[in-house]
Design goal:
NADP, 255 residues, 36% helix
């Protein structure tokens, strides 16, 4: 398995639980009992002390607190795109299976030379828009984050937003950019209390809400004319609600 084991999964020393309800989507339609939102987390560095991985781990702990099920993909043996014929590699298969499993995702990349890293882009490049008629990213929610070694920047999160749109994902409004990330973590790899940590809490809380809100409607929201036409699947006008509503309006206007 290429999913990382999350250390101290339920320990949140920087979180003030008085202000962080365990189920932030309960007040939303369809926010009641149901399976936990399934969230895949990707990070963009293979360093032993990878700050993008540490951020993702903090996000995963918060996701657990907010009632979601997180899984972190380990890209350490992921080949480059087109390096393996037919993408026939166990790491590629597992990444795609996790993407299909997910209802939402978190992408966190270091900013390197003003952009996302090659490790981050490689993971996204291994997620095609379609696999055998199934779409591993379309309709999923997405939260974007970045870490920087210097002053705060938004180059990486802006690129991740562009990629999320290209992958037909619903990228949430909030985002996180952590400046001088090396100062924000203690010797155990845990994030210190700060406004940067609070922003990660905000992002994760918002991601859970959007995922719960959208997931019952993903099929309708991603239904496209061009794809129906290409598949030779015309709409049954007797069952289509929009066609029925329009027909009723037309009849009413003719009275």
């Amino acid at each position: 398995m290429r999913t990382r084991t999350l250390p101290d999964p339920d320990t949140l020393p920087a979180l003030d639980r008085r202000y962080a309800p365990g189920h932030p989507a309960l007040d939303l339609p369809n926010g009641g009992p149901g399976h936990p939102p399934r969230i895949l987390l990707l990070y963009g560095s293979l360093r032993e002390r990878s700050y993008s991985r540490l951020v993702v781990e903090e996000a995963a702990r918060l996701l657990r607190h907010f009632g979601a099920e997180p899984r972190i993909f380990d890209p350490s043996d992921l080949p480059l795109p087109d390096q393996v014929k037919g993408d026939d590699h166990p790491a590629v298969r597992e990444l795609r299976e996790l993407a299909m499993w997910s209802e939402g995702q978190v992408w966190c990349s270091p900013e390197r030379h003003g952009q996302i890293t090659g490790v981050m882009k490689t993971q996204i490049d291994h997620l095609p828009l379609s696999i055998g008629g199934l779409r591993p990213t379309q309709g999923r929610t997405l939260a974007v984050m970045q870490v920087s070694g210097g002053s705060q920047s938004f180059n990486a999160v802006n690129t991740l937003r562009l990629l999320g749109r290209w992958m037909r994902m619903f990228t949430i409004p909030n985002q996180s950019s952590i400046a001088k990330a090396f100062q924000e973590f203690d010797e155990n790899g845990r994030m210190r209390p700060s406004s940067y940590y609070e922003r990660i809490v905000d992002v994760v809380e918002e991601l859970v809400r959007f995922t719960v809100l959208l997931r019952p409607h993903v099929r309708t929201l991603t239904d496209r004319y061009s794809e129906r036409k290409a598949a030779g699947a015309p709409i049954d006008m007797a069952k289509d609600l929009s066609a029925i509503a329009i027909a009723r309006q037309t009849k009413g206007a003719g009275r």
